[in-house]
Design brief:
This protein has one helix and 30 strands. By secondary structure, the chain is mainly beta. The chain is globular. The chain starts with a strand and ends in a 15-residue tail after the last strand.
């Protein structure tokens, strides 16, 4: 049984509230599977309990490094999609200290669930290259279909390879990478996702069709879709610290959609800047950093009030894309996608500490090690 809800688009003058902004910016058509198809109640079996039920990021505060990463060198790993290489930066000197070839079109560098491995995802090369983060050195390369991005189920059982061009989510054994099951998705450009606080479902974005998906993690099946207005291009997805909402960046709507994961409805929209792309929480989980790729800025969002508290602008322009926050929370690292450079922002006031030249097309860089007990994937979605 299916039900449909359509919300008309309109524009309100003056200061926009969260809900009014949503209606001003998007026309939403949602199709949701009926309630009997919802995931079972309670946490996903095998998922480590949250450190704080009121804060999903309480286990990833500044300095809270897992014993699994003890002694790992602090490095920034930069996949250069246009050069088929990886640059490695020393975050203390802002210098490139290593450079090595990868497969064709490396998109993201992803920490494994157990934090002991970094994977370079060679999308068009249909392969993943393993980095040993205890040394920062390259290990073997494995053949895997279309690894645009990769996440891990909260119980650690499966790596979810986001096969963008194949329109699939491939559930693979997290240890062996052997394919267990593929879930075909009814959209183009599936790219980023995040998980509910209980680990039972995930919310994913499809950029080329402007679609948002809800997927049952344990059953590995689609629960519903939301179709955003024509021309939308949803990107990164991140759950709020209190799990009340999912934030979804949208490059063409130039801001962030607010999606209630439980009811699976868009409840608001927050304009942040042209080309909103990447989403990262500060180490104290008080601020959400939104990279606005097309205007060369970072919006610092007070996620509780749903307002942009401040904006950091890159001097002389730039194209901030994907990255992460340093282990101590003092630096936000972002790739400069169209400028062949990497940016380091001082999170105390947003001034640029460095812009480091790298090879062509830097994308999903990974700051490592990062605080957290385990990784849910992407460039370091830690809990």
């Amino acid at each position: 049984m299916w039900s449909s809800v359509t919300v008309p688009s309109w524009r309100s003058p003056g200061t926009l509230t969260c809900v009014a902004a949503a209606l001003a910016a998007v026309a939403i058509s949602a199709t949701i599977i009926a309630a009997q198809s919802a995931p079972p109640a309670g946490p996903l079996p095998g998922m480590p309990p949250l450190v704080d039920p009121q804060d999903v990021y309480a286990g990833a505060r500044a300095g809270q490094l897992s014993p699994n990463v003890k002694g790992f060198p602090e490095l920034i790993y930069v996949p250069n999609s246009g050069a088929n290489t990886v640059d490695v930066i020393d975050p203390h000197t802002f210098k490139i200290v290593d450079h090595f070839p990868a497969g064709k079109e490396p998109q993201h560098v992803v920490p494994s669930y157990d934090l002991k491995t970094l994977w370079v995802l060679n999308d068009l090369g249909d392969s993943v290259t393993r980095i040993d983060p205890s040394t920062g050195k390259v290990q073997e390369t494995r053949q895997i279909d279309d690894p645009y991005n990769m996440y891990y189920t909260p119980d650690g059982k499966y790596a979810i390879v986001v096969a963008e061009r194949l329109r699939r989510l491939d559930f693979r054994d997290a240890g062996t990478m052997k394919l267990v099951e593929s879930l075909s998705v009814p959209c183009r450009g599936v790219n980023h996702m995040d998980f509910s606080a209980d680990g039972r479902y995930m919310i994913a974005a499809c950029e080329f069709s402007g679609t948002i998906l809800k997927v049952d993690v344990a059953a590995r099946k689609l629960l519903g879709t939301i179709q955003l207005k024509q021309g939308s291009m949803p990107q990164d997805v991140r759950i709020a610290p209190d799990a009340s909402i999912f934030f979804i960046a949208d490059m063409m709507s130039h801001g962030v959609h607010l999606v209630d994961g439980e009811s699976f409805k868009v409840t608001g929209f927050l304009p942040t800047g042209k080309g909103a792309h990447g989403l990262y929480f500060s180490r104290d989980a008080k601020s959400l950093y939104v990279s606005n790729r097309d205007e060369g800025s970072v919006a610092v969002v007070d996620w509780k009030t749903r307002t942009v508290a401040k904006k950091w602008t890159i001097p002389k322009g730039g194209s901030p894309d994907m990255g992460g926050v340093s282990a101590d929370g003092k630096v936000l690292w972002l790739s400069g996608r169209y400028h062949a450079e990497v940016y380091a922002f001082d999170t105390s006031d947003g001034h640029l500490l460095a812009r480091i030249p790298v090879s062509k097309g830097p994308h999903g860089l990974c700051v490592y090690p990062q605080p957290g007990r385990y990784s849910l994937g992407h460039t370091g979605n830690m809990r």
